[in-house]
Amino acid sequence: MGKNNKKKKGSKKNEEAQGQKVIKILFVSLIILGLLMMIGFSLLNK
């Protein structure tokens, strides 16, 4: 029973870390997409 509790706690930490990583990747990709769009629009308007 004790081992199961440790596994659950570890997997919960893993899930939280994985969620944080996904959120960071999402925000970075959105920022990069925004920068690319700004550069693209500035090049089209010349």
Descriptive tags:
46 residues
Description:
By secondary structure, the protein is mainly alpha-helical. It contains one helix and no strands. It has one helix spanning 2-44. The mean pLDDT is 86.
Task: State the helix count.
Answer: 1
Give start-end ranges of low-pLDDT stretches. Answer: none
Strand portion, in percent?
under 5%
Give the overall pLDDT as a whole number.
86
The topology string of helices and strands comes to H
Structural class: mainly alpha
What Rg is obtained from the alpha carbons, in whole angstroms? 20 Å
User: Which bin fits the share of residues in helices?
Assistant: over 70%
Shape verdict: rod-shaped
Distance between the termini: 68 Å
Number of strands: 0
Largest pleated sheet:
none
